[in-house]
Protein backbone atom coordinates (compact mmCIF):
# COMPACT_ATOMS: atom_id res chain seq x y z
CA UNK A 1 0.00 0.00 0.00
CA UNK A 2 2.86 2.37 0.80
CA UNK A 3 4.03 2.16 -2.85
CA UNK A 4 1.31 4.65 -3.76
CA UNK A 5 1.27 6.55 -0.48
CA UNK A 6 2.01 9.97 -2.01
CA UNK A 7 -0.66 9.60 -4.72
CA UNK A 8 -3.15 8.55 -2.06
CA UNK A 9 -2.35 11.48 0.22
CA UNK A 10 -2.53 13.98 -2.65
CA UNK A 11 -6.00 12.79 -3.73
CA UNK A 12 -7.33 12.72 -0.17
CA UNK A 13 -5.85 16.05 0.95
CA UNK A 14 -6.72 18.03 -2.17
CA UNK A 15 -10.22 16.56 -2.41
CA UNK A 16 -10.82 17.27 1.27
CA UNK A 17 -9.66 20.89 1.16
CA UNK A 18 -11.64 21.61 -2.02
CA UNK A 19 -14.91 20.02 -0.93
CA UNK A 20 -14.92 20.88 2.77
CA UNK A 21 -15.80 24.61 2.42
CA UNK A 22 -19.06 23.63 0.66
CA UNK A 23 -20.27 22.13 3.95
CA UNK A 24 -20.28 25.59 5.53
CA UNK A 25 -23.75 25.98 4.02
CA UNK A 26 -24.89 23.74 6.89
CA UNK A 27 -23.87 26.45 9.36
CA UNK A 28 -24.65 29.91 7.95
CA UNK A 29 -22.45 32.63 9.42
CA UNK A 30 -25.46 34.27 11.07
CA UNK A 31 -26.09 31.12 13.14
CA UNK A 32 -22.57 30.45 14.37
CA UNK A 33 -19.67 32.55 15.63
CA UNK A 34 -16.95 33.72 13.26
CA UNK A 35 -14.35 31.52 14.94
CA UNK A 36 -15.94 28.47 13.33
CA UNK A 37 -15.36 29.85 9.83
CA UNK A 38 -11.87 31.02 10.73
CA UNK A 39 -10.86 27.62 12.05
CA UNK A 40 -12.30 25.61 9.16
CA UNK A 41 -11.00 27.81 6.36
CA UNK A 42 -7.57 27.95 7.98
CA UNK A 43 -7.55 24.15 8.28
CA UNK A 44 -8.40 23.80 4.58
CA UNK A 45 -5.49 26.09 3.71
CA UNK A 46 -3.03 23.94 5.65
CA UNK A 47 -4.31 20.64 4.25
CA UNK A 48 -4.48 22.08 0.73
CA UNK A 49 -0.86 23.27 0.99
CA UNK A 50 0.28 19.77 1.95
CA UNK A 51 -1.66 18.33 -1.00
CA UNK A 52 -0.07 20.78 -3.45
CA UNK A 53 3.42 20.01 -2.14
CA UNK A 54 2.73 16.30 -2.53
CA UNK A 55 1.47 16.78 -6.08
CA UNK A 56 4.54 18.83 -6.97
CA UNK A 57 6.71 15.85 -6.00
CA UNK A 58 4.74 13.60 -8.38
CA UNK A 59 4.43 15.69 -11.54
CA UNK A 60 6.10 18.45 -13.52
CA UNK A 61 2.94 19.42 -15.38
CA UNK A 62 3.14 23.20 -15.09
CA UNK A 63 -0.35 23.78 -16.51
CA UNK A 64 -2.09 21.77 -13.77
CA UNK A 65 0.12 23.25 -11.04
CA UNK A 66 -0.82 26.78 -12.11
CA UNK A 67 -4.50 25.92 -11.67
CA UNK A 68 -3.79 24.46 -8.25
CA UNK A 69 -1.83 27.54 -7.21
CA UNK A 70 -4.58 29.89 -8.41
CA UNK A 71 -7.13 27.93 -6.38
CA UNK A 72 -4.87 27.97 -3.32
CA UNK A 73 -4.25 31.72 -3.58
CA UNK A 74 -8.01 32.30 -3.85
CA UNK A 75 -8.62 30.12 -0.79
CA UNK A 76 -5.92 31.91 1.20
CA UNK A 77 -7.29 35.31 0.14
CA UNK A 78 -10.88 34.58 1.15
CA UNK A 79 -9.63 33.16 4.45
CA UNK A 80 -7.69 36.36 5.13
CA UNK A 81 -10.68 38.53 4.18
CA UNK A 82 -13.09 36.63 6.47
CA UNK A 83 -10.57 36.15 9.30
CA UNK A 84 -11.90 39.06 11.35
CA UNK A 85 -15.16 39.59 9.51
CA UNK A 86 -18.49 39.09 11.29
CA UNK A 87 -20.16 37.77 8.13
CA UNK A 88 -19.04 35.31 5.45
CA UNK A 89 -20.55 34.72 2.02
CA UNK A 90 -20.86 30.99 1.41
CA UNK A 91 -21.58 31.48 -2.28
CA UNK A 92 -18.19 33.13 -2.82
CA UNK A 93 -16.53 30.34 -0.85
CA UNK A 94 -18.34 27.73 -2.97
CA UNK A 95 -17.11 29.35 -6.21
CA UNK A 96 -13.55 28.91 -4.99
CA UNK A 97 -14.30 25.27 -4.14
CA UNK A 98 -15.71 24.61 -7.61
CA UNK A 99 -12.61 26.14 -9.18
CA UNK A 100 -10.55 23.83 -7.00
CA UNK A 101 -12.53 20.83 -8.21
CA UNK A 102 -11.83 21.89 -11.79
CA UNK A 103 -8.11 21.75 -11.04
CA UNK A 104 -8.60 18.35 -9.40
CA UNK A 105 -10.16 17.08 -12.62
CA UNK A 106 -7.05 18.26 -14.48
CA UNK A 107 -4.57 16.42 -12.27
CA UNK A 108 -6.44 13.09 -12.02
CA UNK A 109 -5.25 11.80 -15.44
CA UNK A 110 -1.70 12.74 -14.43
CA UNK A 111 -1.81 10.88 -11.12
CA UNK A 112 -3.90 7.93 -12.37
CA UNK A 113 -3.44 7.43 -16.14
CA UNK A 114 -5.32 4.87 -18.25
CA UNK A 115 -8.52 5.10 -16.18
CA UNK A 116 -11.68 6.98 -17.11
CA UNK A 117 -10.90 10.38 -15.51
CA UNK A 118 -14.55 11.46 -15.32
CA UNK A 119 -15.57 8.39 -13.30
CA UNK A 120 -12.54 8.78 -11.04
CA UNK A 121 -13.38 12.46 -10.59
CA UNK A 122 -16.96 11.75 -9.54
CA UNK A 123 -16.06 9.02 -7.08
CA UNK A 124 -13.26 11.20 -5.70
CA UNK A 125 -15.79 13.96 -5.02
CA UNK A 126 -18.12 11.48 -3.29
CA UNK A 127 -15.33 10.07 -1.12
CA UNK A 128 -14.13 13.59 -0.29
CA UNK A 129 -17.66 14.60 0.70
CA UNK A 130 -17.86 11.65 3.08
CA UNK A 131 -14.46 12.32 4.65
CA UNK A 132 -15.17 16.05 4.89
CA UNK A 133 -18.67 15.53 6.32
CA UNK A 134 -17.53 13.34 9.20
CA UNK A 135 -14.76 15.81 10.15
CA UNK A 136 -17.17 18.72 9.80
CA UNK A 137 -19.74 17.05 12.06
CA UNK A 138 -17.06 16.25 14.67
CA UNK A 139 -15.73 19.82 14.72
CA UNK A 140 -19.26 21.18 14.87
CA UNK A 141 -19.96 18.85 17.80
CA UNK A 142 -17.03 20.38 19.68
CA UNK A 143 -18.44 23.85 19.06
CA UNK A 144 -21.38 23.07 21.33
CA UNK A 145 -18.92 23.12 24.24
CA UNK A 146 -18.13 26.77 23.49
CA UNK A 147 -21.51 28.07 22.37
CA UNK A 148 -24.37 27.34 24.75
CA UNK A 149 -27.27 28.38 22.52
CA UNK A 150 -26.12 26.70 19.30
CA UNK A 151 -29.15 24.99 17.65
CA UNK A 152 -29.02 21.20 17.97
CA UNK A 153 -30.50 20.81 14.48
CA UNK A 154 -27.19 21.96 12.91
CA UNK A 155 -25.34 18.87 14.16
CA UNK A 156 -28.30 16.68 13.30
CA UNK A 157 -28.32 18.08 9.77
CA UNK A 158 -24.58 17.43 9.38
CA UNK A 159 -25.05 13.82 10.53
CA UNK A 160 -27.95 13.25 8.13
CA UNK A 161 -25.93 14.67 5.23
CA UNK A 162 -23.09 12.28 6.11
CA UNK A 163 -25.58 9.39 6.10
CA UNK A 164 -26.86 10.50 2.70
CA UNK A 165 -23.39 10.46 1.13
CA UNK A 166 -22.60 7.10 2.76
CA UNK A 167 -25.82 5.64 1.35
CA UNK A 168 -24.84 6.75 -2.15
CA UNK A 169 -21.41 5.11 -1.80
CA UNK A 170 -22.91 1.86 -0.50
CA UNK A 171 -25.22 1.76 -3.52
CA UNK A 172 -22.40 2.61 -5.95
CA UNK A 173 -19.95 0.10 -4.48
CA UNK A 174 -22.54 -2.67 -4.42
CA UNK A 175 -23.38 -2.17 -8.09
CA UNK A 176 -19.73 -1.71 -9.08
CA UNK A 177 -18.67 -4.91 -7.33
CA UNK A 178 -21.41 -6.84 -9.12
CA UNK A 179 -20.66 -5.68 -12.67
CA UNK A 180 -16.86 -5.56 -12.60
CA UNK A 181 -14.26 -8.31 -12.56
CA UNK A 182 -10.68 -8.95 -11.52
CA UNK A 183 -8.36 -11.26 -13.47
CA UNK A 184 -5.66 -12.85 -11.35
CA UNK A 185 -2.17 -13.93 -12.40
CA UNK A 186 -3.54 -17.32 -13.53
CA UNK A 187 -6.04 -15.72 -15.88
CA UNK A 188 -9.02 -16.56 -13.68
CA UNK A 189 -11.75 -13.90 -13.66
CA UNK A 190 -13.46 -13.04 -10.38
CA UNK A 191 -16.54 -10.97 -9.77
CA UNK A 192 -15.43 -8.22 -7.37
CA UNK A 193 -17.76 -9.54 -4.69
CA UNK A 194 -15.81 -12.81 -4.93
CA UNK A 195 -12.56 -10.86 -5.08
CA UNK A 196 -13.29 -9.47 -1.61
CA UNK A 197 -12.78 -13.00 -0.23
CA UNK A 198 -9.45 -13.46 -1.99
CA UNK A 199 -6.18 -12.57 -0.28
CA UNK A 200 -5.63 -9.52 -2.54
CA UNK A 201 -9.14 -8.23 -1.97
CA UNK A 202 -9.36 -8.77 1.79
CA UNK A 203 -8.51 -5.15 2.62
CA UNK A 204 -11.10 -3.90 0.12
CA UNK A 205 -13.75 -5.95 1.92
CA UNK A 206 -12.69 -4.44 5.23
CA UNK A 207 -12.85 -0.94 3.72
CA UNK A 208 -16.35 -1.57 2.40
CA UNK A 209 -17.58 -2.55 5.86
CA UNK A 210 -15.77 -0.03 8.09
CA UNK A 211 -16.12 2.80 5.57
CA UNK A 212 -19.77 2.32 4.64
CA UNK A 213 -21.80 -0.03 6.82
CA UNK A 214 -20.22 0.70 10.20
CA UNK A 215 -20.54 4.53 9.97
CA UNK A 216 -24.19 4.22 8.93
CA UNK A 217 -24.87 2.14 12.04
CA UNK A 218 -23.00 4.67 14.15
CA UNK A 219 -25.07 7.50 12.70
CA UNK A 220 -28.24 5.80 13.90
CA UNK A 221 -26.91 5.94 17.46
CA UNK A 222 -25.70 9.52 16.93
CA UNK A 223 -29.17 10.69 15.85
CA UNK A 224 -30.74 8.98 18.86
CA UNK A 225 -28.15 10.55 21.13
CA UNK A 226 -28.89 14.00 19.73
CA UNK A 227 -32.56 13.54 20.55
CA UNK A 228 -31.40 13.44 24.17
CA UNK A 229 -29.43 16.68 23.64
CA UNK A 230 -26.22 14.78 24.45
CA UNK A 231 -23.88 16.51 22.02
CA UNK A 232 -20.71 15.38 23.81
CA UNK A 233 -21.68 11.72 23.49
CA UNK A 234 -22.58 12.24 19.83
CA UNK A 235 -19.21 13.87 19.21
CA UNK A 236 -17.46 10.91 20.83
CA UNK A 237 -19.22 8.56 18.41
CA UNK A 238 -18.17 10.80 15.53
CA UNK A 239 -14.54 10.32 16.59
CA UNK A 240 -14.98 6.58 16.06
CA UNK A 241 -16.61 7.24 12.70
CA UNK A 242 -13.68 9.44 11.63
CA UNK A 243 -11.17 6.67 12.26
CA UNK A 244 -13.17 4.10 10.29
CA UNK A 245 -13.93 6.42 7.35
CA UNK A 246 -10.41 7.80 7.07
CA UNK A 247 -8.85 4.33 7.20
CA UNK A 248 -11.26 3.04 4.56
CA UNK A 249 -10.58 6.06 2.33
CA UNK A 250 -6.86 5.23 2.38
CA UNK A 251 -7.66 1.68 1.29
CA UNK A 252 -10.12 2.79 -1.41
CA UNK A 253 -7.54 5.18 -2.85
CA UNK A 254 -4.92 2.44 -2.84
CA UNK A 255 -7.17 0.08 -4.84
CA UNK A 256 -8.00 2.94 -7.18
CA UNK A 257 -4.35 3.67 -7.95
CA UNK A 258 -3.08 0.08 -7.84
CA UNK A 259 -5.93 -1.85 -9.50
CA UNK A 260 -8.03 0.85 -11.14
CA UNK A 261 -11.11 0.04 -9.05
CA UNK A 262 -13.33 3.12 -9.06
CA UNK A 263 -14.59 2.79 -5.47
**How many structural domains does the protein architecture include?**
2
Classification by helices and strands:
mainly alpha
Strand content: under 5%
Order of helices and strands: HHHHHHEEHHH
Residue share in helices? over 70%
Mean pLDDT across the residues is 91
Shape: flat
Task: Please work out how many helical segments DSSP would assign.
Answer: 9
Spans of 5+ residues with little confidence (pLDDT < 50)? none
Major β-sheet strand ordering: 1-2
User: Which sheet architecture does the biggest sheet show?
Assistant: 2 strands, antiparallel
C-alpha end-to-end distance: 16 Å
Oligomer: single chain
| Gyration radius from CA atoms, angstroms | 19 Å
Give the total of beta strands. 2
Report on this model:
With 263 residues, this protein is mainly α. The chain is built from nine helices and two strands, in the order ααααααββααα. The protein has helices spanning 5-19, 34-58, 62-82, 90-111, 117-143, 152-179, 192-195, 202-227, 231-259, and strands at 181-183, 189-191. A two-stranded antiparallel ribbon has the order 1-2. Helix 4 (90-111) packs across helix 5 and helix 8 (202-227) runs antiparallel to helix 9. The longest helix is centred in the C-terminal third of the chain and has 29 residues, at 231-259. The protein is flat. The two termini are 16 Å apart. The relative contact order is 0.13.
